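BUG: 3D viewer hangs when loading the predicted structure for this chain

Environment: internal workstation, default settings.
Expected: structure renders.
Actual: progress bar stalls at 90%.

Input used:
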Amino acid sequence: MQINSIKVWLLLVINIIIVSSLSFTAFISYQDAMHELDEIYDAQLARNARLIGAMLDTLPAFSPDQTLTVSVPELADTGENLTSAQERLFAGHKYESKLAFQVWQGSRLLMASENTGHFPSPKAASGYHEITENGVHWISFSLQQGQSDLWVYTAQREDVRQEMSEHIARAQIRPILLLILPLSVLIYVVVKIILRPLNRLQQMVAAKKADQLSEIHLKQPVELQPIQHAINQLISRVKQYINQEKRFVADAAHELRTPLSILQLHAQNLQNTTEPSEINEAAVAIVAGSKRMTHLVNQLLTISRLERVQDIHRAVTPLTQLVQDSLSQLPLKLLEKVLWHTEIPAQLTVSGDQVLLQAALRNIFDNASKYSAGNDTVLITALLLPAGNINLTIQNRSAVHIDPARMGNRFFRHQGHQHIEGSGLGLSIVQRIIELHGGTVHFACSSSGDITVTIQLPQDNT
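C-alpha cells produced before the viewer hung:
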C-alpha cells in the first residue's frame, strides 16, 4: 500500500480522529465515573458510621468488659472471573476484608471489626481523612456521638477504589481496541466506494489512444466535475493543436508541390540545353522559384510559431511611430509605387509586442502596394472609438473585385493576382497577431474596387 495515497491518508486520518474522539470521551467518562464512585464510597463510610452510632444509642448502658470483635469472612479474590450473580452465591463479599470500623470511648476500644489489625490510628476529628499506615492507604471517616467522648471510625482501603478504577478504565478502553480493526476495514471499504468515480476517470484517461480524442462524459460527484471538465478542455486543445498541425502539413505540402515541380522542370531544361538564352532563362526561373519558396517557407514558419504563442510581451508604443516603422521596412520599389497618406492623432498609443504589430502592418502595407495600380493613394487613418478602442483603417484600390469573406483564408489568392508575387499567407498572419493582442480585423471591398482593412485594438490606459 502506497503512503502517498488518498485512500491511505483518509484511512489514517479518520482512524486517528475516531480513536482520539473515543479516547477523549472515555477519559471524560472515566473521570466522571471515578468522581461518582468516590462520592458513593464516601457516603457509604458516613452511612456505616451513623448506623453504628444509631445502634449504640439504643444501648445506653453499652460498656463491655472486653472489646467486642465483629468477624469478617475471608474470601479469595477471584478478580473478574465470576459474574455478579455467581459472586452472590457466597456468604459474603471479597471486599468485606477491606472495610473496617472501630468504636472508641475515650482511650478504650469498645468494638471493632475483625480486620482492624492494620487499621489506621484514629483521628479524633470529625470528617474524612486519608491515612497511610504499614504501607496501606486508607480513607477513613470519624463521627462523634453527641457531646460524649464516644467516637465511631469507619475506613476503607484505597486499593478497593483503585481496583474499581482499573475495571472502569478497561471497560472504557476495551471497546476502542475491539472497534479499531472493524472500523478500519469499514472505513477502507467506504473510501474505496467513494473514490470509485475517480478510478473510473483515471481508467478512461489511461485507456485513450493518440487517435481517440473524444471528450469524457461520466456521471461524477460535484467535487470531480471540475477535474473532468479540465481534462475535456485539455483534450479539446490537444485535438485542436493536432488538427492545426495536420492542416499546416497539408497546406505546406500542397503549396510547395507546385514550385518544386517548376524548379525540377527548369533544372531538367538547364541540364538538357546548351543554348545560352535557354540557360539564362532557366537560371532566372530557378532563382525566382527559390525566392518564392523561401518566402513561402518563412511565412509557414511564422504561422506555425504564432499558433503556439499564448502570451505576448507588451510595451506602450505611439501609433504614429508604429506605422512609420512598419512603412520603413517595405522594399523601396513598393514604398515608391503608391502615395502614402496618414491621418493619425499623435496622442494615440497601443500596448503590445512592437515586433509582431510591425509584422502585421508590414503585411497589410505590402499587400496594399502590390495589389494597387501605380500612383494610387493608400489612405491610413486612425481614430479613438467611444468604447475606448483604436480603429485603424487602411484603404486602397484594387484592379479586381475580391470577396472580403475569403480574405484572410490561407493560400487564398484571386485569379487576377496570380502574376503578383506572394503566397496567400500574409493576411492569415495579420489575423493571428491582432487576435493575440485582443483585437479584431475586418475586410471590406466596395463595388468600385476599394479595399478597406479595419483593425480594432485596445488603447493603452496606463
